[in-house]
C-alpha cells in the first residue's frame, strides 16, 4: 500500500528530514497585525520575538484552511496514494485535528487517518519520524497506526513559562482561572493533560521553577518501565542560558540518553512567550523494533 505522511510545521521537522523521509509539512499561519506569516517559510521564533520587542501587535495563530488541505489530499489521491496518515499538534491547542477528522469523514476516498499527538514540537516530530520509518519498512497501515498509538502513550513533558500573559490571552491554558490573579508574579509549571495545557504549580522564581522541573523529570522518568529506552528533549524560546542549564542537568542525571535540543516553533512560541523552556521524553524510536 502506498501511504502518504503529512504533519504540520509545529512538529519542527527539518527540510532535510522532510526530503529524506517523504514527509509533507503543512505550515501553520501566524498573524501579526494584518500580516500573515507561515511557519518554516517566512517566520522564526527569533523573528517573532524581535517583532514583539519592536512593538508589533500581539501575535495570533490560525490553522491551514480546509480548502488547502482538500487540494493537497486530492493531489495525493491522484498520485496513487491509497492512504494518508496526518499527524497533528494537540487538539487541545488547535482545531487542525478536528478539521482533518471532518475531511476524513466527508471524503472517504482519501482513506485519511488523522492522529492527535496531544502534544506538539519535537516530541510530535519524533512521532512523525517513527511513522516515516515504518512506511519505509513496508508495514501495513493497521500496524503503523497501532505502533503510533503505543509510541504516543510514552510522550510526556514538563515546561515553564516566564509568565502566563500569552497563554491566558491566547486562551490556551485550560485552568487559567486559578492562576490569573497572580500570573505576573509567578513562574508556572505546566504540562499537557489529555492534550490540554494545564498549570499545576506556582513557583516564585525561575531558579526555583527550574529546580522543581528537574526534580519532577527525575521522578517521572525513574518510574517508567521503559526508562532505559527513552530519548530526552529540550525545547526553548530564546534563552541559551536556560538551554545550557537544562542540558547539563540531563547529561549529569541521564548520561546514557540521547538529548535533542530544538526551539519552539513560532506558532507555539506565540502562546508560551519568550524565555519558556520544556524538558520532554518519549520512547527512543531508534531503540524499538519498527519492522513488524
What's a concise summary of this model?
The protein is an alpha/beta fold.
Task: Kindly list the characteristics that best describe this protein.
38% helix, Hypothetical Protein Tm841, Chain: A,domain 3, four-stranded parallel beta sheet, 2 domains, 292 residues, single chain
Strands ordered across the widest β-sheet:
10-9-8-13-11-12
The end-to-end span amounts to 15 Å
Cα shape: globular
Indicate the low-confidence ranges by residue numbers: none
N-to-C SSE string, H for helix and E for strand = EHEEEHEHEHEHHEHEEHEHEHE
Number of helices: 10
Number of domains: 2
Beta-strand content bin: 15-25%
Nearest-integer average pLDDT: 92
CATH-derived topology of the largest domain: Hypothetical Protein Tm841, Chain: A,domain 3
- The percent of residues in helical segments reads 25-40%
Any idea of the CATH class of the largest domain? Answer: Alpha Beta
Assigned CATH architecture of the largest domain: 2-Layer Sandwich
Largest sheet features = 6 strands, mixed
The number of strands is 13
